[in-house]
Amino acid sequence: MARINIRAILLIVVCTVFTSLGQILWKYGVDSLEFSIIGLVSNVPLIAGFLSYGIGLIFLVTALKYGDLSFLYPFIALSFVWVGMMSYFLLGEPITALKWIAIAFIIVGVSLIGIGGHRK
Amino acid sequence: MKVSILAILLVLVSTFLAAFGSLYLKKGSGAFKMSIKKILSSQLLVGIFLYASSTIFFIWALRMAQVSILYPITSLTYIWVSLLSVRVLKEKMNSYKWAGIVLIMIGVILITL
Hints:
Oligomer: heterodimer
Radius of gyration of chain A: 17 Å
Order of helices and strands of chain B: HHHHHH
Shape of chain A: flat
Largest sheet of chain A: none
Strand content of chain B: under 5%
Structural class of chain A: mainly alpha
Distance between the termini of chain B: 14 Å
């Protein structure tokens, strides 16, 4: 089994960054949610989050062109890592020891998928 | 701590919808080029619809139970996707990928507890 599928991995990782951004933005947007046309349209975090998800979707589908679903899909778990880090840097939410352990599990798990994707 | 059975069922349905949604996105990705026209390929639309439905079910479930119970259940989606990939897309699993899935699931459960 030849070279590692860098292109697909890079694409899906970028996807997860955008979906994580979308999640954080929506968390803001939902806090000030108004169910009116003006309220929704002027809800910047909501709109920005929506766009972010949309960009993530484009990267996801493009990644899927170049890699197996069972190989790429687990990388989506990386969004938990990004959200954790973004919450820390942008919202000041502490990363507990348990969270660090969880992040380690996810990163090792994703790495195993990456290695496993090229074996029969 | 009371747990709503309905909430758990809703999340389970949500995981199935997300898994099938990913399947359709994969199937539709072949036709996808960076143009708006291609985005309207029916498989991609089905995939997006299923994903959106999955989110709606999950949000519905969230109204009845806590995130710390429901989020870990969503990790089942990784199993469904692996099984669907083998069955429908004829992809191959191996012990590395399964081990990775298990570790990821543990990580997801821990991070949302």
